[in-house]
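Let us begin with a simple case.
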Amino acid sequence: MTARLSSGSPRLDGILCGGLLANSTSLIIGLPGSGKTILAQQYLFANATRERPGIYCSTVSESLEKMLGFAQSQAYFDRDALGERVFFEDLSGVLHAGGLPAVLDRLTGLLQERRPGLLVIDSFKALRAYARTEEVFRRFLHGAVERLSAFALSSLWVGEYAAEQLESMPEAAVVDAIIVLRTDRLGARDNRALRVLKLRGSAYLTGEHAYEISDRGVDTFHRLADSAEEREQATDSTVALTEAAVVGSGIPGLDELVGGFPAGASILLMGPTGVGKTVLGLHFVLQGLRRGEPGVIATFQENPAQLERTAASFGLTLAHPELSLLYRAPVGVRLDQWASQLLDIVEATRAKRLLIDGLGDLSAVSWDPGSFREYLYSLLQRLARAGVTAVLTQEIPELFGITSLAGVHSPHVVDFVLLLHYVDRDGLWSRAVRVLKTRGRSHSSAAAFLRISDRGLEVASADD
């Protein structure tokens, strides 16, 4: 198996299908502030050993003192490693005095002296300014690659390149891998996206992946999209719904109305505000806890204290060792990051029931409706393969039913669609529930009434 270079972040290594290839040259690019230096230093401390140390060479973009000062605030920084397995070198003096040939000579001296396993040059792009012509720079580039190859080590070149510049840059042709870090301004928020443009001789996860920068370094959240193999598994899981065990809702009359919910199914509850979507979802998850099935509640609008008050009004409690809460305010939510956190919780707790309360809030942070449909489909398929039965709520503006599904988020990707709405009964508003869709199950087409009292929920026919 080909040796890999770990980033120190399991999720990023997953995007790279194990990590960057060892003994190769990689380019980390992005505009200032995108996190290039932090990611490169993360690689440095994660891979340097006494036998095969790491060398970080700064050029003329940022002073070595400032770079080290900021690095010390990061969790990956190990002061004891300095001078033992991690070495920092300032090439600016050599560069000013002797230009690119002197840099090559100094790099060769460092490689002979330290015999490193990893060499970082930051900024590599800054070296271009010291070449009088493009031909001079290409000769330097060829010499650098030749000398690095002779010592069988991994190297990272860091530069303030924009992705659209790469077509005309010879650096992009000679390196084995290219990682792009980008920050986009969408409305009032900044969205950071990582993309692998090249990874010679290895597979990797395509597309743009969210990432964040913190005192832990750079952490990524891979794009939620099923591979071809996973889509085949998803097809098998959809067929298996007809054979799956029935999951009880714990709400009298509801299971009879829909013909039962198969384990691993996805259920969309849509309706106007106050009609009972959240309450119904809470009862479904809490019924699972009574049956020994761990549950997760993911919410955007109601914080844990508000949810606890709602549950308490029905004599229920959320204080259960097998119930996990994931609360995120809709401001600042990033789809891939949120999904990674949710799936981590589901896996760690072996959850079997899930409530996602507020599908509209989740879709609002997506810049593209098409990508959100793909995202939701992939999320639900992952949950189905894990045997998780998921209830999702979505608010709609119509109080008295709905005439079109145009404003409903991807009803075709869920297995069940239930419409909760109000009806006028002799001048009084009553809550009604109607089944719009079931997958692989027969169901009643008649409307029923949803009764909410301090004893809980009950679904009854119009005749009762």
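The second case is a distinct protein. As before, the sequence precedes its structure tokens.
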Amino acid sequence: MALHTYPDANASDPVHMGWMQGSPPPTDRIIRFADGGTTRFPEIRWAFSNLRQLMPTIAVLRAGPISALPMAVRDDLDAITFTPLPNSGFDTPMTWQQSLAANYTDGILVLHRGQIVQERYFGALTPDRVHIAMSVTKSYVGTLAAMLVADGSLDPGSLVAAHIPELTHSGFATATIRHLMDMRVGITFSEDYTDPNAAIWNYARAGSFWPRPPGYTGPTSFYESLRSIPQDRPHGGDFRYQTAITEVLGWVLRRVTGQPLETLISTRFWQPLGMEHDACLTVDETGTAMAGAGFNAALRDQARFGEMLRLGGTANRLGDTANGQQIISPAVIADIARGGDRSAFATAGYNRMPGASYRNMWWCLHNDHGAYAARGIHGQAIYIDPVAEMVIARFGSHPMAANANLDPTSLPAFHALAKHLMA
């Protein structure tokens, strides 16, 4: 379905539409997981900010004083203009404010030199509500893995089967941990979000992230679903974005550390960073957290995580970074920012991102500011611009899942904002 056939951001506003309002809500305004309401537009405009009410989750706990995010709100950002990428259906220059509506933004927060220069919420999202981060989750998992590699706890050259014997007869068995971290695993796994029969949706059904049809007889957990994925080409070749790879990496982290993902994110990030709200992860029916896309967090906390990376892995709970606590080794941040193999990325078909690469489950743009990003379907993002000293955290509920539908009005907008802040 073409974008112009969907109601725009204003017409699909979940509050105006009355989703889940009333005691009980009207029958035609109730959203249920079982009938696909968490995946269908315009219901997703409410559901993405309320998944804890609709799906089982496990908490990612914060602790202690909240770290400061100083306010320095500016009124000159909305009028910034940029030109959308060519051949995107957007033929005229657009303002920053217009881009927020075009991308069905639920929340946007811009940090410049550690200060909030813009913070906006739309629809059902509020500052104290968590929103699904989708595949931004992968960047948390990739960062954790890179930290374990850096401290010697995880050998990037070790084989998957050495850590997870249960996958000995799967397509993952002879892939290395580095192959997982850079998504260069030779498996058969379709990530086509428009095809309800694609492997990505079979994986989601197995993990209770997507409703199962009547008579379903397939796998009933994420880990069970991974065992039947075959290999179809040598590992270590071209980049292929496949969510199942992150699920395997999350399993490896659990085996190596003896801790589940929710504990790792809590103890490595959420507690030492002084986050404002508990986050959560969706879980399958065995209680296993979804490593590929299940993270939910508040917008300000997503920004705090991005700011910590921008500062080279340093953070201080009081907002003073002069003597801040080292959360992540600077070498890990440098490895992410340096990026991966561009030639391996070039064949993957991301025409909106020429010259980009993928490293430790981060998207590296290799533009003139050295920007890199965590990205999730429907508009989720953490965008870090080291040169402009800028971090953008965004949640969205775009009707079309793939980021190719948002990149024409997101990537140039982010870069234009960065240049404006520098000026």
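DSSP finds 14 helices and 15 strands in the chain. Residues 272 and 327 are 7 Å apart (CA to CA).
Keep these points in mind for the review questions at the end of the chapter.
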